Amino acid sequence: AMLLLFASSLYSEQSIIERMARIKEPNLPETGIRYTKNVTMVWCAFFTLNGFIALFTALWASDETWLFYNGFLAYVLIGLLVTTEWLIRYRVKNKT
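^ that's the sequence the OP posted. Answer follows.
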C-alpha cells in the first residue's frame, strides 16, 4: 500500500514527500522540489525491495526467518533509511 501511495504521487502535481516538506516550508525552492521527488523514488525502491523480501520470506523461508525479517529487520531498515535521509537533507540544506 505504501508503494502504491508513494509511486502514484510521482504522477501528481506534488509527490507525497514534497507535500510533507511544504508543511514546514511552504515556499519550497526548485532544488527542494527535485530533492523531494528523488527521496520519493528512493522510498519507492525501498518499498519494492522490502515487498519482494517479505514475499520471499512468507513463501519460501522458515517461520523464524519470516518473523525476524518482517517483525524486526524491516523496521530497522526503515529507521536507517529515515535517519540517512534526515542526515543527507541536513547537509543539503546547509550547503545552500
